[in-house]
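Input:
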Amino acid sequence: MDDLPQALLIFGLGAVVTLATTLMIWQGYRHWQGRDPFEGAD
Amino acid sequence: MAQPFLAPGIAWALVVIFSVLWIALGVSWGRKGKGDADDYMLAGRNIGLALSTATLMASWVTGNTTLLAPEFGYRNGLWGMFSYALAGLGLILFAPLALRIKQLMPAGRTSGDFFRLRYGRAAWWVFMVITAIYTLGFLMTQAMGAGILLEALSGFDYRLGMVVVIGVSTIYTLYGGMRAVVGTDFIQSLLIMVLLVVVAVLAFRQFPVPEVHRALVASHPGRLNLLLPAGLLIAWNSALFSMGEVFHNNIWWSRVFASRPSVVFRSFVFGGLAWMTVPVVTGSIGLVALAQAIELPQVNMVFPVVASQLLGAGGAAMVFVVVFASLTSTLDSLLASTADLVAEDVVFKLLNPRLSDAELKRATRLVVIGLGVVTLALSWPRLDSLASVLFFTGALVASTIWPVAYGLYWRSANRVAAIAAMVAGSGCGLLAYTLIAPYCAALISAAVSALVMAVGTQLWPERFSWHILKEG
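Output:
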């Protein structure tokens, strides 16, 4: 597992998962900004 | 055994001075406040920005940050430093979640409260298994790290170093609770930052950056290559592993509950950014060692070797203090927050809901002692492959990232999907650990868990009432 194509594949997957997680959190944060935290609708 | 970096007399003097200081301050701070269980567990829920930032940073600086990060820099060059520093993302990305937790659970005490109220008792059991394995692994690596590091730095017997570090942390946590932990963390974080800066500045005054760069280009150009395969492989593992650690573990949730609402967001961002400087600074020391071709008896001893070679006995003493502060600041946080979790979630909520406030506080104290004893017992036989223990737990904790974040923001988050995400993520992460490589465990676990959580929720959305979390 130490040649470049495989390393780039793992690197790419890691970047996608990290980015997706960051975007999900950012979206949730923006959604609830300035709202009642217990508001019923998503 | 290799020659220790510090004379035993100086090492003993430092241990006695800092042990007495931590215990005296911890006991004294523990006497403040109302003295009830909530005060003992969460320091009055009134911690300000400076203390909150410092305790986050100090708890996150472990023995690994000061000794493994230089090894990463030495072995993997620039990527080694940067990938280790990416672990700060766990704290930074938790900042918005911390704000939401503070709003939804003003009376909450533990991360277990969230799992139980949000996803039900079955999910809570899965969470408890994951956090128990992770916490025991973390306690053991810190305890064993203490024994191994103090032995290498000062010649102390492995078990003596371990007993001293665990004993000191347990005593002041026992008497002072969260107040003692936060107060000592503040001083420990200042010590760590100041001494690291002093070591780095003195090292780079002797070997300026252009000189180090020239030497690396000539002798180890691969270490400056951002496409180094070994560096690429570990890059995101640190980030995802750290998110898993921070998002689920009660160390960080207890800091949210203990801090003022106005400071939680900023303290996690500042704490994460401050922490990131530590592996960058210590990692750069690894590059200095490489550039100067300094001979190393063990590669994980890069930092003390460089400090003592460049700065003499004073450098070795500074490293000793940094390591001692890093270990005690992490162990006290682990002991306090795990004791809160066991006492609140297991003893109080599960076994005996009629427990009085005084009995809950007593139970928490007993758990602190019990954890200290269990940690000592488990760490008594010495293991030298601590990194593999840590990577193993990465497979488990990374599976909690999406269930936690999704469950805090979307009321449609499905409870069965959350359980399936944690189980499937952990299972696949462990398979990746065994079949591919240990550093892929957190990545595969997080990827599978995210997929299961998102698809399960899309297919079977729930309509959770946020008010349920308020009772926590």
